[in-house]
Amino acid sequence: MVAPAVPEIVEEEIESAIESRNDALPTLRELGPPDLVHLVKQSIKSGNKQSGVYHHVTGIDASSSASLAAYVNTITYNPNDKSSKVISGLYWVSCYNAFSRLDMRVDVKIPGGVESYCIDERGDKRVASDTLWMETFLCGVLRAYAYADDGGGDSIKKIIGVRRFDPITSTEMEHRFLDAAERLFFQGL
User: Fold this and answer.
1) Is the separation of the CB atoms in 182 and 138 below 8 Å?
2) Adjacent-strand bridge partners of 119
3) What is d(CA 156, CA 39) in angstroms, rounded to the nearest whole number?
4) Distance between CA 26 and CA 18 in Å, rounded?
5) What is the DSSP letter of 60?
6) 169 vs 176: CA distance, rounded Å
7) How far apart are the first and last CA of the chain?
8) Radius of gyration of the chain from Cα atoms?
9) pTM for the complete prediction?
10) At residue 10, does pLDDT exceed 80?
11) 165 to each of 4, 11, 35, 178, how far by Cα in Å?
12) Could you count the other beta carbons within 10 Å of the beta carbon of residue 137?
């Protein structure tokens, strides 16, 4: 499978996309928006000049901080981009957890280090538990299908800079999805 190109939306102010997402958290409904991937890049030629870039993504495995950090890793080391380097990455797993109504976040420090946590509707930071990750994984798969293009492009045009992946790429992934759905169903979620 060929990976789709990585769109980059350049911010006027670094982290303004993150601030907008924080502001929107209390109003999010249903499955929420696609995941937000935010990177800070530094120009190689002009020393300390930094810029914030972001894109949206659906279909990435959101079952753990490690799987999301792996996605950030795939886009930070781009051999085709010789003008700048990524100095920090933040994957805002908007895999917005619709069950617990919070945003799962993975902060990838470059070089090295990953921090994962949740932000609730009030903006309070919470610990990311295994149950929250399972909920987030299920939401991510459902959201990928909810935002899938129907072939006419109508549904995806509402969001700019979207990178879409198929969330179920193997029998193992299908079983993980069905297991999560069954476990959460019997918990009343």
Assistant:
1) no
2) 103, 125
3) 22
4) 14
5) -
6) 11
7) 34
8) 16
9) 0.86
10) yes
11) 8, 24, 12, 19
12) 26
Question: What is the enclosing helix (H) or strand (E) of 9?
Answer: strand 9-10
- Alpha helices per DSSP H over 40-129: 65-76
> In 44-178, at which residue ranges do the beta strands (DSSP E only) sit?
50-58, 84-97, 102-109, 114-120, 125-126, 162-164
User: How do 50-58 and 35-43 pair as beta strands?
Assistant: antiparallel
Residues 48 and 11 sit within 8 Å (Cβ to Cβ): no
Q: How confident is the model at residue 48 (pLDDT cuts 50, 70, 90)?
A: confident
Look at the block and give the residue holding tokens 């890049």. 41
177-142-129 Cα angle (round to 5): 60
Contact (Cβ atoms closer than 8 angstroms) between residue 115 and residue 107: yes
Q: Which two tokens stand for residue 42?
A: 């530094």
Measured in whole angstroms, the distance separating CA 113 from the mean position of its chain's CA atoms is 17
Determine if the peptide bond prior to 33 is cis (ω within 30°).
Answer: no
Contacts of 80 (CB under 8 A, 6+ apart): none
